[in-house]
Structure formats: structure tokens, C-alpha cells
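In the previous chapter we treated chains in isolation. Here, by contrast, the input contains two separate entities that must be folded as one system, with a combined length of 692 residues.
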Amino acid sequence: MTQFLIIMIYLGLLLGLGLIASTMFRGTKKDYMQASHSIGPFLLLMSLFGTTMTAFALVGSSGEAFKEGIGVYGMLASSSGIVHSLCFFLIGVKLWSLGRRYGYTTQIQFFRDRLQSDRIGLLLFPILVGLIIPYLLIGVLASGSTIQQMTSGAFPGMFPTDSPATHGGLPPWLGSLIICLVVLIYVFFGGMRGTAWANAFQTIVFMVLGLVTFVVIANKLGSGSAFDKNQDGTTSFEELVAMEETTAKAKLAAGEAALKKAIRDGGEEDFENAEEAIAQAKQSLELTEENARKRWNLLSKFDRNQDQKISPDERPGFFENLASATQAAGHDKLTREHISKTKFFTYLLIPLSVGMFPHIFQHWLTAKSADSFKLPVVAHPIFIMIVWVPCVLIGVWATTQLVPPVPPLPSNPNAILPFLVKTQTSDLLAGFLTAGILAAIMSSLDSQFLCMGAMFENDIFTYYMGKDRFSEKQQVWITRGFIVLIVAITYLLSLSHPVSVFTLGVWCFSGFSSLFPLVVAALYWRRLTKTGAYTSVIAAAGTWWYHFSASNYATNRGYMIEWALGTETYEFMPVTMIMLVATVVMIVVSLVTEPPEQEVVDRFFSPKT
Amino acid sequence: MAGQRIAGLWVWGLVLLLIVLHQDNFFWHDDTLVLGFLPIGLFYHACISVAAAVTWFLGTKFAWPDYETESSAADSIEAEDAR
């Protein structure tokens, strides 16, 4: 119940913030969609960071580290630190400058003007919307499942479930509905200013709470006190054996249930995973005493009766606990044993997606001046580090025997962080961390809803109905109407339980990355022609679809392009091929087609010196 | 002007260097713990994040294009439109 109350208070605060922002609304379309270009460096940093960091930054980072070890930091975080800032620097500031000069609100307005083509909008619009909808769904679904897990036990009579992890928690349909309504209200009334303020507030919340969680979990696991379940602060060897046995049996039952489901649904990869889980559970069942002995030996290095034997001054400090927790991890989690070097390298292309995110484009346009970009460009890599390093370490610690075997760890890696918080910290901190996870989710959802509304209004509705037929005020209301519609559609789609949508994440990012060469060429290459742009987009979409279908529509999660060279086989992210094809086609076709008119080139490029 | 151009090239050189250094094959199988608690692969990439921030700071100092003039032009256009 504590968690539930904290979540409600947090959502109330957020609504208040959005409503305060709405009192500053100037009634114009530019104010609603771009906060009248009034956002300074600090707010721009917080809103850009909050928007690029989804729920994945907190729960996904620890979940991936749990699976793959520390390598995920280099693959997803330090790469983003370099590449995101590169996008802000090379693309963001330039687009902001052109946006100010020619009054753009959306990316499609820019491309239509730059390429002097109406149809490029019709080509790009369904692609951008199609890529962003799964991204929205991930946020809505993640918010529902997070709220259910973290409020479990609050309403056992009203919302019973079979699983102890979710029993009595708010059902996902209700949690998602609450989040959609809260985001809708502050976006509807506050527009971009409300969104930027809410993002700044939420970014502070998830950064601070992430760090607090890190310290508490480090002290709990690293001191061995996660096992202090008895009054005298110890757990006996016999109790450890019983714990191991209970866990192995629970894993076996879960594996068998997953196998039945895989047979029913026909998922080849799920079938293999379930068989592997069953084999591991059976092995654990045979080795319960041996595993308990290993855990006992590990725990014996801690003084298990600290309160009675050691004075507070002599207890291990935070850094000693950090060391104990990390030293308990296996070699494979402390290195990148299981990560292919070429996959690691080509993952650098994924963060380029930021250069083509429509919602990031809209945030760029809110900047007060070009100088407002300097702080986000410099601080973004550091902010990523502050959030990711602790989460990656927590994910690695979760693989150690310092985590009690009962209750068993969840099978979904993304549930590792909420699980540890719920089992290893207080209700109060669990409630705050839930607020932090929801903050990370909502700080992306709000920008995406707003930008989708702006795209429908600008690029389709008023573009074809005639902008002059509507007053500024009417255009704001039309945008709001579209936002309500998009929130409703997204919510309804989330009710159809599209579980596979989570696997679409990296494919969405790859799609946006494959449009990156187009935006770079539009900004820096005078010779880009509209035919070159069309063919590049079509080639990117075709190559993307080819690989997407080859991955069995994202169900083969480990799908990679494999190139055999001699005796070695090298793995590459599919985005490598998609971007290569899109770039080559764009350059070749642009060079063989008629150059753009000089008058158009002069509008976008300074004279050659 | 020429000095600033050279400084800008140095900054872009640093960005390229960062991308090369990001591929740290030398720590791939190393499980050494820095300060006793930070795996060296994680420590190295945290350093890459800090180095990225420093590089971008230099970028904003020495390779930042003059967009303020363009934004002043935009303000004039907006002011004219308002009239």
C-alpha cells in the first residue's frame, strides 16, 4: 500500500506541474508545440536526456547486465554518450537554426522544403509513425507491468492473480490507463512547456532515486545481510539447502509452464529457452546441497551477527560492500566473454537513431538559442554514466550467490531491478523507485504523444486542408484532438497484449538509424536530390523489411548478419547493411539525377568560400 | 579564423579517436577490478564517457559554428511577420 500511495502522490505532483505550466500558455501554436523557443540550457539538457532515456535506462540496463555482464555499458551507454552528443552537435543545432529561420515544427516540413517535394512527406509520414508506435507501446506496457509488480499485495481481494509477484497489484490495464491519463492531461494543457518542465522534474527524480537504490542494494548485498532473515541475523546451512531446493523446484515448474506455452504458441526460440530452463532447473535440483555449500562458504566471510559482535565503527563501509558484491560475480559477467567484437562495434550505429527521432527534433526546436545546446552536448555522456554504471553493477550483482535463492529471481531480466528493490529494500524506497521508473517512462511518452499530434496536425491535416482556413487557436485544438486520439489508440493497442512488441525496440531504432544518412545529406550535401532521397528511403525500408522478416518478425532475438571470412565468422548488426544500402543508393542516384535548383541550395547553405 | 579551423579539425580528430578507443579489444577478457570493485571493462568505458564529455566541451569551444547570427536573422523575420 505504501508503494501505491507514493505512486499516486508522485503522479499528483506531475499533474500539478503540468497545470502550472499551462497557466503560462500564450495561446499560440508556436507556444504549444515549441514553448515559443524559450527553453534554456538546463531545461534543454534535462528534457533531451529524459526523452532519450526510456524505462530501458533503469530496468533494461540492469536486465541486460544480468544476461550479458558489464559489456552492455560499452555497447549501449558509452556509445550513446559519443553518438547522441554528435547528433545534437551536427544535426540538432543546424536544424534548430533552419527551424527558426523558416518556421518548421516537424521534420517533414523541413524535408518538404529542403527537397521541394510534397510527396517526400507522404513517404516519410507512415514510416516515422510506424516506427514510433511500437516505441510508444513499449512505454505504456512497461508502465502497466511495473505498477502491477510494485503494488502487489496492496489489494489482494480486488485484484487476485496466480503469481505471488503480482497478486493484489493494480492490473496492467488499470496502471497503463492511469499513466496514459496523467501524461495526456499535462501534455494536453501544458503543451511543450509542460512537457519540458515535467521531463526536467522526472529526470531529476529517476537519477536521484537510481543512485539511492544503488547505495542501499550495495550495502545490503555486499554486507551479506540480504540473508539475515532470522532474529539473530543468521541463516543456517540447513535453511540454505531448503532455499536452494525450493528455488530449483519453482524454476522447474516455471520452465515446464513455459514449455507448454511454447508448444501451444509455436515459438521456436521460446521452446528452446524453456527446454534450457528445465535442464538448468533439473541440474540445480540435483546439486542443491553443493550449491548451498558454495553459498555458505561465500557468506562465511561476512560476520553474520554484526549487531552483537561488531561496533558500528568497525562495520564494513560502502566501498567495502561494493567490493564484496562485485568480487562475488563470475568471470563471464565481469568481462565480455559472450559478446561478439563486431556486434559490439556495429552497435555504435544504433544510437544514430536519435538524429531522426521526430520527438527529439521537436525538443531541439524549443531551444532559446544555439548556445543552449552546449550544456546538453557536454553533459549528456556524463548523465548517461551516472544512470547506467550503477544499474549495470546491480544487474551483475543479481547473478551472484549473495542474492537469496528465495524468493526465486524472476525469469524476465527486465524485472530484476524492481525485484531486488522490492525484496531487499524498504516499502518506502520501493515506492520511490517505482516513481523513478515511471518517471523515465513518462518523460519519453509525453514527448512522443505531443510530436505525433503535431505531425498529424501539421503534415497531414492543415497541410492538405489548407493552413489559412484555421486560426492559431483552432490549430492548437486540432493538435490536442489528435493527441487524445493517439493516446486512446495506443492504450487500446496495449490491451491486445502485444508482448512481442518489446523485441521490436532495437528494430525501431535501426529503422530510425537507417534514415540518418538522409538527414545528414539534407543538411550538409548540396548535391542531394529529391530522387536520391526517395530512393534512399525506399532502399532503407526495403532492406529493413528484408532483415526484419529474416529475423522471423523479431521473434529471433539473436538475429545478426553473419559473414564468414576464412575460418572466422563475424557478426554484424542488421543496421550496418541497412545504412550502407541507404547511403550508397542516395549518393549514386543523387549524382545521376538533375541537381537541385540553385535558389533552393542557397536557402540552406552559406555561399562557398 | 585559420587557427579556429585547425582547432576544429583537432576536435573532430578527437571524436574519431574516441570511436576507435571505444573498441577496447584489449580488455575483452580481463576481469581485473579497479579500486577493488569496478570491473576494468566498465571502468574503461566510464572513462570513455568522461572523455566524450571533455571532447564535446572542446567542440563547443573550438568547433562551434556561428548560429547566433542566423538566429538573429530569424528573429528579424519573425518581427517582420508580426508587423
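Chain B has a mean pLDDT of 82. The CA atoms of residues 4 and 62 of chain B lie 6 Å apart. Compare these points with the single-chain example from earlier in the chapter.
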